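Notes from the 1:1 (GR / supervisor)

We went over the backlog. Supervisor wanted to see one worked example end to end before approving the batch request, so GR pasted a single chain during the call. The sequence is below; no edits were made to it. Supervisor asked that the structure be written out right there so they could see what the output format looks like.
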Amino acid sequence: MEYIEAVACLGSPVQFSTKSEISARTAAMLGRILHGGCPLSALVTITTIRHVRSLEPTAPSVDSRLQTIRRLALEGLSVFLFMRPLIPGACDDFPDVLAAAKEAGAAGVVVGSLRVSKKIYRRLKQAKVADIEAIDQQLRSRSIEPEALTENQVDIQDEPLRASIVAKAEQLGLTTVRRACCANAWCSKLPCRKPNCLMRHLAQW
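Structure output shown during the call:
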């Protein structure tokens, strides 16, 4: 919070992401910063409800994250659900995730991807809810054997899953973007300076 307060006077768009439950007091402080002229973009990570305890045993509960969305939205912030990492086989309850986020007041969703390293791959195998065969297939399509993974991350793009999430989100009236920076651009109603930013083609303001 102190970092946001320190840069708010600049008036530049500020984005933060969280899995924590933000108190009503902190949400009110963020609302005052927003209405004081500093654009704020909030990302709240929820990728699954059904498998959350297998994948995130020490993370705050889904209910507490939904409460964060409610409190921030109540203060006027545009909150985006952050669906990343998208884990094949472990995000099949995405309709429930999207519906819960929409009910809580989310404005949109960032539909991301999965980045796999040797350590992440091992953790996914241990969790036993991910479709490891689908991940292996993606790796081998890039001539990478799972056993040869290092700590360098490899981007796994599950385009059919992403397309299904986008279709359901749009049905619910949620704005869909592919990157966190796109959500920041949408919330601030400012074009991104990156020449290949997807929001350059979506901006209506």
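Supervisor's comment: Residues 159-172 form the longest helix (14 residues).
Batch request approved.
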